[in-house]
DNA sequence: AAATTAGTTCTCAAAATTAAGAACTAAAGA
DNA sequence: TCTTTAGTTCTTAATTTTGAGAACTAATTT
């Protein structure tokens, strides 16, 4: 079991609550929190269980969910049966793209709603269209912003 | 009870499911869907209940939640005790700002995690910092993008 | 071969969420 | 004054979610 300061434990809970609000179960959020807060580059199944005081079953399910969602990854070492879990840090730009796609999917539904409503309420149509078009514009700008940020950062 | 085509009903469900995935209860999502899909500029409590076949209690709670979250609004007419509900269409740019603030709040937690971890894992620190800084950059750009979009649109 | 390890899967119970229905309130109308 | 209307609140039941614990599996070690 890892020794964690009260501040570390508190921060794990805060990160956990943030993830709960994003729709994850509490245990899942705490595991993400732990992986971000721990100084160790990776943690084993056992360390996670003992440190967070959670069951093997909840941990097994949570880790597999997080692996599948590409929020974490693991390394192995030959001659060692354990898996060494860590937060996946290289995929945040893909995450941004995914988030934008979800927003775009909703924009498409709003467009369908506009189409079905016809011209009964032109003011509403226009306002909904504004929203749709800004979201599409924002989405289209994200890759450029990413490039720009990468470039600016190099200096 | 409003007459709705099968396509309209289907679209209400899709908008409902989107909102369920965003963390709303099913009834809440369907009400949002109905308000976007209906040709009427606003709907009464009774019309919502009858059209969606949901209880008064669920409807009362859902409408109050949506009012409080500023997803809907209502109008009144003097000499008429009913409230006339509609989707709130003017606040989507505030919504974008709120979403960005939530992302920034998480960035702040990540920064705290970086600080607590110290220099044990510099590669991780750098990657987390990249994520934080891109999110901050993206967030800072949103108001400009909104302005730019508004300007470009005027032509 | 027996025991340990690293995890998975199954079963179940507790807790939380969701929404119905009934009882209620406060204003308006008859 | 009695009734209707527009909605709220309370109680309760069904459903879903969450996670514990035990039993299990498949390697690995002894």
Automatic annotation (TrEMBL), chains A, B:
Keywords tagged on the record: DNA-binding, Transcription, Transcription regulation
Record-linked InterPro entries: HTH-GbsR_regulator (IPR052362), HTH_MarR-typ (IPR000835), WH-like_DNA-bd_sf (IPR036388), WH_DNA-bd_sf (IPR036390)
Domain (HTH marR-type): residue spans on this chain: 34-82
Annotated signal sequence range: none
Pfam families: MarR_2
PANTHER family with a match to the protein in the record: HTH-TYPE TRANSCRIPTIONAL REGULATOR MJ1563-RELATED (PTHR38465)
Protein's name in the database: HTH marR-type domain-containing protein
